[in-house]
Design brief:
- The chain has two domains: 3-185, Nucleotidyltransferase, domain 5 (2-Layer Sandwich), CATH 3.30.420.10; 193-237, no CATH class.
- It is of the alpha+beta class.
- The strands form three sheets. It has a five-stranded mixed sheet with strand order 5-4-1-6-7, with helices on both faces. A three-stranded antiparallel sheet has the order 8-9-10, with no helix packed on it.
- Helix content is 29%, strand content 22%.
- The model has no long low-confidence stretch (mean pLDDT 90).
- The chain contains six helices and ten strands.
Amino acid sequence: MKILTLDIEMAPNIVHRWQLYGNDTTGLNQLMQPQEMMCAAYKWYDEDEIHFMVTRKYINDPVSAESEAHLWEALDRADAVITYNGKKFDIPRINTELIESGWGPYSPFAHIDLYQTTRKVFGFPSNKLDYVAGRLLDSHKVTHSGHDLWVACMMKDPEAWALMEEYNKQDVVLTEQLYTKLRPWIPGHPNVLLYDENPGQLSCPVCGGRIHRRGERQLATGIYERYQCTECFAWSKKVKRLDGATVRQ
């Protein structure tokens, strides 16, 4: 199973405002430059290399970063994509960048959004990536100057872009490590055995590791053999039931 972890960074909207306080609304005729994607970092789960791409508007010469073509190809190859709040943020903005650049749709993939898992399954005081990674991994995002870094990158400052690349890549590292930590807790995780060369082997459907029987699970449809993985500790059950009623309410 090809699993891709990714994270993007965006340039801000540039608008004309009459005041910096109150409820002053911003009309479309005040939008001087719309928000746009600046860069993306991505990594395959079974590889060490972290790829980094910069959109055409912000790339410098000599070109050291990858292009939209590389990102599209990675998404097209992926069976599953891991993000942190990517369903609302990263993927829609990537799609916007791709269609505006003339690209067609990439092939479908399973989307594992870890932000949704932390919100649904746990009760952390904050669900921000930096906080959750600090609690579970004892690791954090790269420290930077905030908005000033984005402004410097928009001005194509080489030192700013070096820090942006480090920052973007570290987010991918944190997201991937957090995925490994959260994997047995993720609701509806894709069944990795469907991509296995030996689909008949009794293995963990979450990580492909060894499993051992841990009693039975009773559901509305019947009673099933229950298993737990010895590697990631995820629970699973056999599809074929042991026993069950022929009718139910």
